[in-house]
Amino acid sequence: MSVRRSVCVFICVFCFCCALENVKRFSVQELTVTQTELKDCEEQMKLCVTSSDDCLYSLSDGVPQVPRTPENFLNTSCHYLYHEKSFTCRWIQTNNVRSQTINSFIFSRHKDFWHCDQVFFIYSTFNLTIRSVIGQKEQFSAVYPLFMQDITQAPQPLITSVNVTDSSINVTWDGSEKSITECRIRYKRLNAESWTETADFPASIESHFVIEGLQAFSEYHLSISCFYGFGRWSNWSNDTRVKTSESLPSAAVSLSYYVKSEENSQQLLLLWKALEDTDARGFILGYEVSYMPIKQPSQKKTLNTTHLKVMVPVRAEEYEVSVCAYNGAGRSPYRQITVNASFSHDVAAVKSLWVYSDGSSLQIFWEHDFSAVNVSEFAIEWSAMTDPEHTHWKRVNGSTFTAHLTGLEAQQTYIVGVSPVSECLCGPQTLISADLHHGALLDLVRFRVLNVTRSSLAVEWMWQEAKPKVSVIQYRLLLSGPHEAQSLTVLPYKQQHLFLHLHPNTKYSIHIQGQTKHGNFSKASLDVNTLLLDSDEQMRFTALAVLLLLLCGIFSVLTWTMCREYFSPIIANPRYSLIGRWLLNPHLQGSAEICVLKLDSLFPVEQQTEKSILQVERRVSLISDHEDVFPLKTSSSAEDTALWKPSSDYVENAPTPTSVPEYVDLPLFPETSGYVQN
């Protein structure tokens, strides 16, 4: 199997090499000869050659009889320079041999050449054959019939001087060639793609021409070509770079403002756009800024600056502001606006400003809310921290949220600011620091959980100025759980996030991930469990449980009371009173003596005026042997006595009660009370 594979590989390599050998190679060939290099062929009077070996070829009608391969000589072009007495041909040669090529010319014609210097006579006609020797192989071109007057080319002009104004260039060139009859000039602005050619104009003795209608303070490339009146135009002269002079700026600057209020003071930020080159018409030396309270014109102030912004202190009143640019030629028209410093406006600052390194440049991007006003442009300013006065500016369209900053130094730290612009209004500037190695010099730290509920999770982090290990394109916040996953970009304007619609009592993992050009890395991570119940739900559950217990207690008390009242009434127990214990005393049974209770110790003297005698009776139950105590009977007569009767006699003689006897509430007897027996 390995042998077969090796054979296949060898065959493929061999075929590839053969294909390379068969591929035709193209090379540009050029040969220049002068009149002195031509040689006569003594035996061939109709030939003039550049190599004596070419005299051996036979002629037929003035043409060498040789095998020709015109397909190997493509795009052949020849010309004769009269002032240099040189003849040049250029062609594209095709061959498949990597060898040195030796070229030669064979000049022939029907008539004899008396002398070879007649070949380059202005009215001469002849046939040209190009011979190329490649290795050991000869190739001959087709026969080219030439007429010297048609291929004679004027010499290349030389521009000697240029004089400029703000809109024209006066070109002067070498006019020593008296035979030149016409010339033309071409020109284009720097970095333009196409040339503009003037019409052919007669060559004058002074040899100069004025190009008009040019833009002021603009750099142009120009060259000139001339003509004998016959033959071919000369080659274009070498490009000459020239710059038109300055003139007054033709347009006013585009001005915007922002009122910044701080406690009891206001500051007015004025921001303007640099003039385009077509409007500046020169090098802008600076800007003149004037601001004047409308109600107090005498307090007008004027200052000059080279920056594209200025901040001045103002009071809470209306001001008239004007700004103009000036160059070496003078001032531009003034841009005037009226500013009310009593209140600010609604152009919000950009957010999510971030910078990352892109090799030798910085890529910045941002976000902006268009809910308030329509932003037409973003003004980007950057400067090195070591040279804050030397600032650079760039404007991008309002629909663009990214910009590319170039021309930065590797060891410098830069401050980058972005301001939104809406016609004559602008927003506050958002700043960030960055360098070419790290990008934004901000790092994300202190990642922690801020709050947890049963369906939401809040996290918090902080940003600090630092030099991260790598250039971070952006940070992303990731949440993953058994039921869902969420992801969002976090940038410096944001320091916390709330995840909603989560599942209760579920474990979630939260990560902050940094994105770089070479991959992603984990910056911080947390594992958090959502709650089973929220605190307010717990409070509601506790209050409901307490209320339910309270209702149950009230219901049980009411139920117990009703059961005692209607289903299980209280039966009096004589053992819980002194009288009951006295009546139930066993030593009173079996005695027929009359016991009279002494009341002297129970009632005070003043209450003994009307004496009462308690009659105690003993009744035996007819149903059981237990004794029942019946109510005491009181008598208001002083002569009544309490008798103790045997239970048998009492039962026989006692009347049957008609109703349940009522209990008589009696005072409690103190422990000092007693009884007597009579």
UniProtKB/TrEMBL annotation:
TM annotation in the entry: 541-560
UniProt-listed InterPro entries: ECM_Regulatory_Proteins, FN3_dom, FN3_sf, Ig-like_fold
Cleavable signal peptide: 1-19
Stretches assigned to the Fibronectin type-III domain: 154-247, 251-346, 440-536
SUPFAM superfamilies: Fibronectin type III
Lineage top rank: taxon: Eukaryota
Entry keywords, A to Z: Membrane, Repeat, Signal, Transmembrane, Transmembrane helix
PANTHER family: RECEPTOR-TYPE TYROSINE-PROTEIN PHOSPHATASE ETA-LIKE, TENASCIN
Protein known as: Fibronectin type-III domain-containing protein
Source organism: Cirrhinus molitorella
Highest classification ranks of the organism: Eukaryota, Metazoa, Chordata, Craniata, Vertebrata
